[in-house]
C-alpha cells in the first residue's frame, strides 16, 4: 500500500521509499526530516473542505505535512 | 585584551533555539546582517558564572550541514570557520527538542563531529515529559561523549547549569573540522539507536497536540476557525486601538498647543507645529494598530498555529502555483512586507519564492492603514447596514479583499509566465503546540515598535520637514489669490506629475502627496496634513480635522481612486530595497516597481471612471 492510500489512524510502517520518483529538493527534505525504511508512520489528517491535499502524518514523534503526490512515493505496510 | 569567547547556538527549526538565546542574553541583543548575503546575524552578550563575558551568536536554524538555503549556508560556514568576518566559535550549544530526540540528534551528531566543544541543551524537557516521554540525560551524555543539560528555555530552567557547563567547555580548544563526513543514513540510524537507549519510558506521542489538532485541522471546523481567527485579528486591530490612539492624539494636541504658546509666530513655530508635530504625529498615531497586528502574528507563530494555517491554506495556494509555506510570509505582509519578504527564505523553490516576493507588497500592510483610515473616515458615511456591520467596515474589508484578489491573480500569471517551475510540493513539520512566554513575545513586539518609531523619527520626519520647506517656499505674494500649495517648489513639481495622474481623477494636492509617500506610505497622510495646514487660515486649522478639510475639496470618485491607488502602488522604497537585497540585483525590484505602478494606475483609473459613471 502507498502512504497516500493509507486510511487515517491506522498505524503502519515504512516499507520502502522510491527516492527517484521524488523531486530532488523534496527527497532531500524528506530525508532530513528522518523518513527512513522501518519507521512507524500514521496518517492523521487529510486536507479539508478546500481539497484532499495535503495530508499530515505522524512519523516517529513528529507530525509532518506533505502532499499526496509525494506520499505516493512511500510504500507502507500495516504495523 | 582578547575578545570575549564566541559561543554559537545551533539547532534545527522548532528546537526552541531563539527562546534559549533570549534566556541567555535577555534584551542585550544586536541584529545585523552577514556581509554579502541577506541573512540576519543575531548576537548578544552574556556571562559565565564567574562573571567573564561571552558573546553569543544565534545561528540560523538548519536541518543539516548540507545547505539548502542561504541561511543554512551561513550556519555551515560559521561552524567551519569559513564565514567572512566571523570568528570560528570557541564553543557550541546544540539545541535539541527532547520530544523529537531521534530526529534532532542526527544533526547534533553531525555538529559534534566538527571539532568545536559542544554542549547539548536538551530543550523543552517539560513538554516531552508531559507528552509521556522520560529521558535519561546521563545516558545520553555518556553515549554522545559531551555534556547534556536539560533545559526549558521558555521557563528559564536549566540556564545556570548551561552557563556552568559552558565555562568548562571553553577551557577546551576547538580542533579543525574533519576532512571526511559520515554518510547521512549512517548518522541517522546511529542517532535513532542512541535516542532509543536514552528513553527511560514512553507513552504514545503528542496527546495534547493531537487533541487540539483534531479541532484545528478538522476538515470543516479548522477552516471556519481559521477565518474566525482572521476576523478576530482585524477586528482587534481597530477595536483595541481606539483608546491608545486617543491618548497619542491628545498628547500631540498638547504639544502643538504648548509650542504655539512658547514660540513667536514665524518660521520656527510653523516648522515645528505644522511641519514636525503634525507630520510625525499623524504617523505615530498608528503605532497601536501596528503593534496589535504584530502581536497576533507573533502569537500565532509562537504557539505553533501558523504551521496549521499553512497546512489548511496549502490547497488554495496550490491553485495559483504556490504552496502552504508561502502563506506565512504573505500573512506577515499584512503587518509589513519587509519581514514578509525576508520570511520567504523558508520557501525552497526559487521561482515560488520569487513569486511570493513579488506579490507580498500587494498585501495590505499596516502603513496603508493611516491612508485608508483618513479617507474612509472622511468620505464613507458611518451607515449601519444591520447585524452590527457598518458601511465603513465593508469598505475596509473590500480594500483588503482587493489586495488579496490582486495578489492571487498576479501570482497565477507570474507562475504561468516568467516564474515558471515544476510544482515542487509542500513539506512541513507541524510543531507541538506550546504556551508562548509573554517576555519573548514582548521582546519581539518591542523590536517592531522600535523599528517603526525609528522610521517615524528619521525617514518620516526628514521627509516631512523637506516637504514642509518645499511647500512653504517661495511664498505666494500676499493678496494675489494664488494658493501657496501651487506656488511653492513642491507645488510646481506636483503640477508636472498632475498631468499624468489627472486622467485617473487625482488633483494637485494628491499628486503632491504621492511623491513623498515613496519614502513611506504613511507620509501621504502627513503630506496632505502639511499641505492643507499651510494653505489653511488659522480659523480653519482650529476648526477642522484633516478629514473634514478633505471632504470639502475632494469628490467621492477621487477619494475612491486614491484608495485604490494605495492598494497597489509600490509606495515604499524600503520594500523595493529589500526586494533588491533578496533577489540580488536590480532586475526584480525594477520589475516590481513597473508592474505595481501600472496596476495602481489602471485600478485607480477604473475606480474613478466607474464611480463617475455610477453617478457617485
Protein described:
The complex is a heterodimer of chains A (79) and B (616). Chain A is an alpha+beta fold and 79 residues long. In chain A, 16% of the residues lie in helices and 43% in strands. A five-stranded antiparallel sheet of chain A has the order 4-3-2-1-5. In chain A, β3 (51-59) and β4 (62-66) form a beta hairpin. The two termini of chain A are 12 Å apart. The model of chain A has no long low-confidence stretch (mean pLDDT 87). The longest helix of chain B has 35 residues, at 438-472. Chain B is 60% helix and 8% strand. The model of chain B has no long low-confidence stretch (mean pLDDT 84). With 616 residues, chain B is of the alpha/beta class. Chain B has 28 helices and ten strands. Chain B starts with 5 loop residues before the first strand and ends with a helix. In chain B, α11 runs antiparallel to α23 (523-535), α15 (337-343) packs parallel to α27 (573-583) and α17 (368-379) crosses α25. Chain B has helices at 17-25, 70-80, 101-112, 125-130, 137-144, 159-169, 184-198, 207-216, 221-239, 242-262, 267-284, 287-303, 305-319, 327-332, 337-343, 350-359, 368-379, 391-416, 438-472, 484-487, 489-501, 508-514, 523-535, 538-543, 546-553, 556-568, 573-583, 587-613; strands spanning 6-11, 29-33, 40-47, 53-58, 91-97, 118-123, 133-135, 148-150, 199-202, 427-429. In chain B, the strands form two sheets. Chain B has a seven-stranded mixed sheet with strand order 2-3-4-1-5-6-8, sandwiched between helices. A two-stranded antiparallel sheet of chain B has the order 7-9. The chains are: A alpha+beta (79), B alpha/beta (616). The interface between A and B is large, with 34 and 47 residues.
